[in-house]
Amino acid sequence: MFIFYMYVVLITLSPYTPRYRDRVAPPGVTIRPYIKHAYNIAFRVSQPSSWQPYVDNLELFLKEYDDKVQETRNIPCTPGAYFVQDSDETAVKKACQFKRSQLMKCSGVQDQTFGYSQGQPCILLKMNRIIGYQPGYGTPITVSCKIQKGEQSHLQSLDFFPSETFDPMYFPYYGKLTHVNYTQPVVAIHFTGITRNQTLDLQCQLNGKGIINTVNNDRFLGRIIFTLTVNS
């Protein structure tokens, strides 16, 4: 009887739409570069071999964001509004263009070292994919960064590209079965002014309705905690 019950349950589950989407936790956060399975970024500006692995990791990650690739695969969308596609759940969904040129100084186009050769590193932040999720529930989700432990004065200035906001047009995500060309949006954080020769404990977080970023025992839920060391 149990085996029959499980069989019935399995054949009624849709591979396209999770049954309990309303119970999915708020999004987690990750960053690039990510090498050696660690979120500790440390390099010496005067020693290219120390920062080149981070540059290579970013370049590899952004290959699918190349402008020509995006123009071939995806479509221009209307900023500021969710891209809801009311079609059969099995239908292939369109995806919005996210061109790496939008990341400007953190695109690897203007500066092929992503700022690392100048001691002003770029870090890309992205949310975990959640099928059907509309971040902010009508209000944009923003990104902010701060010193997690220590003096806030060690972080003097930073810039965000394309902006500090995750544009709603990249949501919702419909899953890998139908949203085959989906390109995940990222926010580039350009650390233009930080104290050198010191390890900084940083926290970059999501802000907005429905976001949880204060759970002490989860460093990835709604935020990412990492260290950044820029030596001269």
Question: Any descriptors?
Answer:
Immunoglobulin-like; single chain; 3 helices; four-stranded antiparallel beta sheet; five-stranded mixed beta sheet; 232 residues
How would you characterize this protein structure?
There is one protein chain. With 232 residues, the chain is α+β, with helices and mostly antiparallel strands. The chain has one domain: Immunoglobulin-like, CATH 2.60.40.1660. 14% of the residues lie in helices and 25% in strands. The protein is built from three helices and nine strands. The strands form two sheets. The chain has a five-stranded mixed sheet. Strands 1-3-7-5 form a four-stranded antiparallel sheet. The protein is globular, with a radius of gyration of 20 Å. Mean pLDDT is 90; it is low at 4-14.
Give a short summary of the structure:
With 232 residues, the chain is of the alpha+beta class. It contains three helices and nine strands; from the N terminus they run αββααβββββββ.
